[in-house]
């Protein structure tokens, strides 16, 4: 008999999501920045100590807003890792920037802070550290480099909501940060994101950019008697119905975090003998960081081992996957001549990384089945 499929990802719902959506529908106010949007923004500002949080239609939208706030223009250069989702690059590419990729560390898979400075030129405008798998980049050193060279720092914290670096929440350490509430993330709205603004000089303009370049938010606050087009912008405001779903998720953060931590602990306990024998490395969390366990990955000794494990898991109806194809090796990057350089760690991690199912709905029996297939494959 064929085993049931173990899903790679499945959102966990508290049960309050539907009630909040009903309240949103009953209110007759379904557009953005209504009751539930305001509650979500206030929740995050309070929990994370953020100066200003603005819900957006996606993390991509938040990054696009950040690029506008940095005043990126054609010819400017932006430094980031190649081991990231395409939105990290596209947000700045759309403003005409040249993307300069820097290699990653082989322990956290984050941008190697010791390689950033050599990529800086007179045209560099910003650094975009990506907190991979919710593990923080070395933000103290990155901020120091940025300050010394007069650069902006935009944190791509899509995977790092509610995680910390040296007692500071990710997304609140640079000039701005971007969160994702996509269906694949820890806390979900189906689609959605947030821009966390830490540069107080950006708050007013961010509200304008988010409202299609108008001062509508000032009009709503009673600060102007009518609103009009005052700047560049786009439609980055999500529906309040999506915010209703998100609020239920935010209120359940601790429950979701505990469930994911329990699953990660079970994986570690079961797979530790195989790590000890050198088959792979499990996620490394620095002592001064926390993790929301967005993913659980195995950094395999060789690409051949990764592929063999991936095949074995998939044959067993377990939805394991690899992760990013590095952006610098993509057809688009090659066709457009993006920063030609050697990124050996990035390429090796891409070839050797295996992601296991990780979501709060995983049962103990499913975790045991996943680990059993891995053990049997390596015996």
Number of domains: 2
How many helices? The count is 13
Report on the biggest sheet.
7 strands, mixed
Q: What is the average of the pLDDT values?
A: 95
Q: Using the CA coordinates, give the radius of gyration.
A: 21 Å
CATH superfamily of the largest domain: Type I PLP-dependent aspartate aminotransferase-like (Major domain)
Which series of helices and strands comes N to C? Answer: HHEHEHEEHEEEEEHHHHEEHHHEH
> Which structural class is indicated by helix and strand composition?
alpha/beta
- CATH-derived topology of the largest domain: Aspartate Aminotransferase, domain 2
The name of the CATH architecture of the largest domain is 3-Layer(aba) Sandwich
CATH first level of the largest domain: Alpha Beta
What's the count of strands?
A: 12
Q: Helical percent range? A: 25-40%
Characterization of the model:
This protein has 379 residues and is α/β, with parallel strands linked by helices. The protein folds into 2 domains: 16-251, Aspartate Aminotransferase, domain 2 (3-Layer(aba) Sandwich); 253-378, Aspartate Aminotransferase, domain 1, CATH 3.90.1150.10. It has helices spanning 16-27, 35-48, 59-69, 86-93, 139-149, 203-210, 216-220, 240-251, 253-276, 303-315, 331-335, 344-352, 364-378; strands at 52-56, 77-81, 98-102, 124-127, 152-156, 164-165, 168-169, 176-180, 193-197, 280-281, 296-300, 353-356. The strands form 3 sheets. The protein has a 7-stranded mixed sheet with strand order 1-9-8-5-4-2-3, with helices on both faces. Strands 10-11-12 form a 3-stranded antiparallel sheet. Strands 6-7 form a two-stranded antiparallel sheet. Helix 9 packs parallel to helix 13 and helix 10 (303-315) packs across helix 13 (364-378). The longest helix has 24 residues, at 253-276. It is globular, with a radius of gyration of 21 Å. The two termini are 24 Å apart.
């Amino acid at each position: 008999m064929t085993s049931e499929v173990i899903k790679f990802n499945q959102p966990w719902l508290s049960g309050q999501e539907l009630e909040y959506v009903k309240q949103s529908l009953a209110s007759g106010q379904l557009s953005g920045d209504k009751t539930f949007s305001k509650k979500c923004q206030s929740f995050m500002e309070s929990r994370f100590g953020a100066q200003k949080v603005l819900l957006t239609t996606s993390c991509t939208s938040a990054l696009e807003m950040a690029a506008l706030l940095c005043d990126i223009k054609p010819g400017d250069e932006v430094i980031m890792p190649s081991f990231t989702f395409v939105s990290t690059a596209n947000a700045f590419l759309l403003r005409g920037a040249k993307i300069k990729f820097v290699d990653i560390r082989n322990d956290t898979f984050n941008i190697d802070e010791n390689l950033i400075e050599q990529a800086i030129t007179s045209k560099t405008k910003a650094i975009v550290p990506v907190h991979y798998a919710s593990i923080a980049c070395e933000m103290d050193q990155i901020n120091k480099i940025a300050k010394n060279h007069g650069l902006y720092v935009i944190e791509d914290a899509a995977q790092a909501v509610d995680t910390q670096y040296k007692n500071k929440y990710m997304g609140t350490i640079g000039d701005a940060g971007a969160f994702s509430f996509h269906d694949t993330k820890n806390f979900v709205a189906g689609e959605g994101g947030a821009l966390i603004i830490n540069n107080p000089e950006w708050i007013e303009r961010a509200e304008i950019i988010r409202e299609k370049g108008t001062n509508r938010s000032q009009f709503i606050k009673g600060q102007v008697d009518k609103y009009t087009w005052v700047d560049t912008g786009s439609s980055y405001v999500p529906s309040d119905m999506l915010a209703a779903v998100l609020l239920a998720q935010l209120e359940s953060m601790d429950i979701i975090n505990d469930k994911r931590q329990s699953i990660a602990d079970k994986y570690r306990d079961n797979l530790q003998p195989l790590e000890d024998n050198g088959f792979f490395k499990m996620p490394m969390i620095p002592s001064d960081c926390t993790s929301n366990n967005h993913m659980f990955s195995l950094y395999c000794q060789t690409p051949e081992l990764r592929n063999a494990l991936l095949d074995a898991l998939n044959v067993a109806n377990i939805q394991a996957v690899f992760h990013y194809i590095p952006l610098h090796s993509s057809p688009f990057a090659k066709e457009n001549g993006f920063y030609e350089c050697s990124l050996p760690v990035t390429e090796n991690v891409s070839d050797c990384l295996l992601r296991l199912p990780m979501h709060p709905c995983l049962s103990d029996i499913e975790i045991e089945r996943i680990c059993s297939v891995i053990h049997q494959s390596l015996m």
